[in-house]
Please model this.
Amino acid sequence: MRLVLLGPPNAGKGTQADKIVKQFDIPHISTGDLLRKHVAEGTLLGQRAQGYMDRGDLVPDDLIIDMVQDTLENIDIEKGFLFDGYPRNPFQAEALDDFLLERDLGLDRVLYLHTDQELLIRRAVGRRTCPVCRTVYNIFSFPPKEEGICDKDGAVLIQRPDDREETVRNRLKVFEEQTAPLVEFYEVAGLLLRLDGSGSPDEVFDIILKELGE
Ligand code: AP5
Model:
């Protein structure tokens, strides 16, 4: 299964991605996670990307496309893949198409998760992440057993710097201006599935499985 997960910030892409890759046993390629890893490790790419990420702007295409191509060269995509947060604009979508075409491959589906804006902001403000195992919590909808502590490894949970309300609003604006055109792009290509992401994580996952014919 070759899938793309598209949607505004905090629509639940990462949450659903974890479930989808387990179900289909395919690699998960999250450009946001890859970039945060580069930032944490202090690589040159991480240093160049950090300012854009902290402001909630898109990281320049050349950096993203090189990073994605490097990743794809080093993982087995024989059984498929799930892209989460990539492509993010028409230029990146064309680059992905070219990459797949060169290998005689195509996408099976593009899953577009949508919910209303106030819910997206509430989810952002409530998100906490474990810096060690990357488990994502939410103080409103999926709190850890002990406040501020990861259930799995006891690490102190952190709030992403780009989850401050002002930055979230910029990320939403960037989504509308630069990423939303991909909804029509993939609809015209006959690949788009529009999915209501406002239910619980399990409810949303059930919708995804049904739409994928599972
Ligand atoms: P990225 O990490 O991709 O951020 P994003 O797209 O803004 O998405 P998020 O990770 O914020 O949210 P999500 O939809 O995965 O939601 P989640 O499941 O965590 O990108 C970060 C930055 O990197 C970008 O701003 C940009 O600078 C850069 N970047 C990345 N890719 C790029 C690219 N291709 N090109 C250029 N720049 C790029 O859920 C959110 C919260 O809600 C969690 O707390 C979760 O527990 C909770 N939740 C999830 N689902 C539900 C539910 N159904 N019910 C209740 N709560 C829920």
About this structure: The first strand starts at residue 2 and ends at 6. The mean pLDDT is 95. Residues 2-27+75-209 form a domain with the Rossmann fold fold (CATH 3.40.50.300).
